[in-house]
Amino acid sequence: MNKQIQKILDNDKLIPELRDIATKVMDGKRITSDEGNLLFDKGSLSYLGVLANYIREKRHGNKTYFNRNFHIEPTNVCLYSCTFCSYSRLIKKRSDGWEYTMDEILDLVKKYDGEPVTEVHIVGGVLPQYDVTFYKELFEKIRAHRPDLHIKALTPVEYHYIFKKEKISYEEGMKIMVDAGLDSMPGGGAEIFDEKIRDEIAGGKCSSDQWLDIHRILHNLGKRSNATMLYGHVESFANRIDHLDRLRKLQDETKGFQTFIPLKFRNKENEMAHVPESNVIEDLRNYAISRIYLDNFDHIKAYWPMIGRDTAQLSLAFGVDDLDGTIDDTTKIYSMAGSEEQTPSLSTEELVKMIRAVNREPIERDTLYNVVTDFKDVVFEDDKHFKGYVSLPVVNN
Ligand code: V47
Ligand code: SF4
Fold first, then answer.
1. Domain CATH for 299
2. Looking at ligand 1, which atom is closest to the CA of residue 337?
3. Whose Cα sits closest to atom 28 in ligand 1?
4. 220 is in which domain, residue-wise?
5. Do 23 and 35 belong together in one domain?
6. Which residues line ligand 2 (CB under 6 A)?
7. pLDDT for 25-77, tens place per residue?
8. Is the domain of 271 the same as that of 220?
C-alpha cells in the first residue's frame, strides 16, 4: 500500500466519494466522468497531487522526458479568428506578420545542420498559399535534406482546410502527407471540444468531430500524435472533463496518442484580454486531474514556454513526466500571447539541471519516446543541485 494514499484513506474527514476515487486509483481502475467532475469540484491540491504522482511514478518512476527540437511557424497570419489567439488579429494588417516561402522554411531547417536535434515541429497560421502541394513538397524536401529528422507537423485545423480546398477526403489527404514524409502530428487545434464554447472561441475552423477524425485516420495509418486542451478561459470544469473523455474514448479505440498537453490560456494581445488567467494552483490541479482521468495516455506534458520554468518544475510532482523540448527560441505564439518566456529557449544542459533540481531523472527522448540519452551518468561541472539522486517516495513503499 502506498503510504501517501494510505494517509488519504485514514483521514476521517475525507468525503466517501473522494475515498472511493483514491481506492480506484490505487487499484489501477478507471474513474468515471462524474468522478472527474467531482475532482474538479472537491479535490484539494494535495489530494490530487498524491494520486497523480502515484500514477506518474508507477508509470515512469522519476524519469522525466524532453527532446531536442525546434519549431517552424510558416506564418503568423491566420484567416481564422480564434478569439484567444494573437495570430488572428494580424490578418487585418498582414504586412506586420511574416509569410515564409518554401526556401525560407528550408533555410530554417538547414540552420540546424550538424546540430543534434531530432524533431522539427511545424505549425502556424492558416493561409491559402500553404496548400496540399506546398506542404507535400515541403515535407519531401525536408525528408530528402535530413532523413533523420522527425517531421511533426500541422494540426487537423490546417489539414481540414487544405483537404477541403483540394476537394479530397481526409483519408486521401493524410496518405499524401504521410507518403511525403509526415511522421507525426502535434496536438494543437483541439481547444475545447464542447461545440458551443468551440464555436464561441474558435468558430469556423474544424469541428471537434473532425479534429478527432483526422487523428483517428492518422493513427490508422500507423502514425502517432499528441492531444492538447486549451483551458482556463470561458469553459467550465464539466467542459474539461467532456474534452478529456472524448480523448480517452478515441485512445481506447486507436492507442495512437502519445502525450496529453494541457495549454493554459494566456490573455495578452488577443480578443480575450478581459478574461483573467488561471492561477498556479488551478494549473497544477488541472495537470493532476488530467493524469488521473487519462488512464490510457502514457505521457502528460507541461509545455514550459507557456507556463514558465518554475511551474514546469512544480508540475513534475503533479502527474507530469515530460517537459517538451529545447525549442531554441523558435516559437512566437506564446510570447505574443503573454507567456513568462519571452524568448523561449533552453540548452540541453539547462533543461537537465532544471529537472535534476526537483530530483527527477532527465531522459532525452526522440519524438516516439525512444531514449536518446539517459543523463544518469552525465555530470556538468557547475551543477550545484546534482549530488546523485535521492530516492523519492516511490510507489508501493
Ligand atoms: O492550438 C493559441 C494554443 C496551440 C493561445 O504536440 C494558446 O507536442 C494559450 O498545440 N494561450 C498550438 N494557448 C500549440 C500546440 C503545441 C504546443 C507544444 C507542443 C505540442 C505538441 C503542441 O496553442 C493552439 C492553441 O490551443 N494557443 N493561443 C493563447 N493565447
Ligand atoms: Fe489561426 Fe490557430 Fe490562431 Fe486559430 S489558433 S487563429 S486557427 S493560428
1. 3.20.20.70
2. 30
3. 85
4. 64-377
5. yes
6. 78, 80, 82, 85, 87-88, 125-126, 157, 202, 205
7. 999 999 999 999 999 999 999 999 999 999 999 999 999 999 999 999 999 99
8. yes
